[in-house]
Amino acid sequence: IRARGLTKQFGEFTAVDAVDFDVAPGESFGFLGPNGAGKTSTMRMIGCVSPITAGSLRIMDMDPATDGARIRARLGVVPQQDTLDTELTVRENLIIYGRYFGLSRAEVGKRADELLDFAQLTDRAGDQVEPLSGGMKRRLTIARSLINEPTILLLDEPTTGLDPQARHLLWERLYRLKQQGVTLVLTTHYMDEAEQLCDRLVVMDKARIVAVGS
After folding, report:
1. 195 exposure class (CB count in 10 Å sphere: 0-12, 13-18, 19+)
2. Inter-axis angle of helices 134-145 and 90-100, nearest 10
3. Residue closest to 30 by CA, chosen among 163, 178, 195
4. Which parts of the chain have pLDDT scores under 70?
5. Could you tell me the end-to-end alpha-carbon distance of the chain, in angstroms, rounded to an integer?
6. Residue 30 vs residues 27, 84, 156, 163, 181: alpha-carbon distances, Å
7. pLDDT tens digit string along 157-194?
8. Which residues pair with 13 in a beta bridge?
9. 175 Cβ contact partners less than 8 Å away, ≥ 6 residues apart
10. Half-sphere exposure of 40 (CA within 13 A, CB side)
11. Helices (H), the chain
12. Of 11, 72, 115, 124, whose CB count within 10 A is highest?
């Protein structure tokens, strides 16, 4: 990912103010900062769901304005709020999401079983989503985001609201992804999370990048 002068405005309000950053392939890159700093607005532009106002943004050497669909096909997205279908089972959530990417039934079934194992949810595969704990729902959301074998995984405050045990389990899963070469881009306001997961990060405050480093 390469951003130069990246800006996002909503009317008179500037949510992201001319920021520059680069994310290398296989890197784990973080946006750290308080609520309202512009982290989520930046992530939405990277995710090709919010058009940029000014500046330039290249993702996997493609332009979000013209190649949005091609970029999204290679992204995994873990939003702040879980958007699981609570009336379906754990496994059905993965199957249906995988079908959106045009995967065959056989392929999506195989990937779903592998991801349930990865997320330690195999024994809950046939259960409805509604009664799952917050940590299990978060792991399922991450598993679902991996169904298309993404090149880049976007995680917006992945562990907010989780207990310490659930957070550590999630960190362990994300660390395994990193070892497999997936590029991770995450926002957080937890210092320990940034320390655990990020190779490099930027600190955002009031729509600007105020520091960058390891």
Report:
1. exposed
2. 30
3. 195
4. none
5. 17
6. 10, 25, 10, 21, 16
7. 888 878 888 888 888 888 888 898 999 999 988 888 89
8. 10
9. 196, 197
10. 11
11. 39-46, 64-72, 90-100, 105-118, 134-145, 164-179, 191-197
12. 115
Q: Are the C-beta atoms of 40 and 80 separated by less than 8 Å?
A: yes
- pLDDT value, residue 114: 92
Cα–Cα distance measured from residue 20 to residue 209, given in angstroms and rounded to the nearest whole number: 8
Residue 173 confidence (pLDDT): 83
In the block, which residue shows the tokens 């249906």?
A: 96
Write down the pTM of the prediction. Answer: 0.89
Q: Among all chains, which residue has been given the structure tokens 């169904």?
A: 147
Non-local CB neighbours of 69 within 8 Å, separated by 6+ positions: none
Helix, strand, or coil (residue 4): strand
Helix %, strand %, coil % for the chain, to 5?
A: 35, 30, 35
